[in-house]
Amino acid sequence: MQKEQQFVKLIKEHEGILYKVTSIYSDNKADQQDLYQEIVFNLWKSFDSFRGDSKWSTWMYRIAMNTSITHSKKKKKSGYKVNLDHVVLREADAYDETFEEQLKQLYEHIKELNVIEKGLILLLLEGKKYEEIALITGLSPTNVGTRISRIKKKLKKQVRH
């Protein structure tokens, strides 16, 4: 299989990761599309350096989150917007209005967290274990557990108000 075909196959298999990361780190559809494209570009640039020491999804999360954090910092400094209408993001297959509203509220509370907290809670919601979150973020598993505990308390407090 050619390198390009293998890359496209892996992106399609794991596009849910990109959709979730871009949803957390973007305020609107245009920003989400811009970030999606930037993450895919960075994945492509780094594709040859993937050694298989970790799962593809772990490596992908790491690049996606680092790109998102860098993108957020750049966006705050520059304030530019790019509309990329030709990028198609994954759409939900089934629609549950109540669930979608609850999910939307949760994401709004998550967006109020700082960039590191957003990433940690996203990975936790994805079902990642502390050890894998530590691999993705570069934090120790103990630090991950402590931070996640604090994030949960913060979110519970926000939801109650």
TrEMBL record:
Presence of keyword Nucleus: no
Pfam family, one: Sigma70_r4_2
Keyword tags: Sigma factor, Transcription, Transcription regulation
An example Gene Ontology molecular-function term: DNA binding
Transcription regulation keyword on record: yes
Signal peptide coordinates: none
Domain HTH luxR-type, chain residue ranges per copy: 127-154
GO biological process terms held by the UniProt record: DNA-templated transcription initiation
Similarity remark: Belongs to the sigma-70 factor family. ECF subfamily.
Protein name as annotated: Sigma-70 family RNA polymerase sigma factor
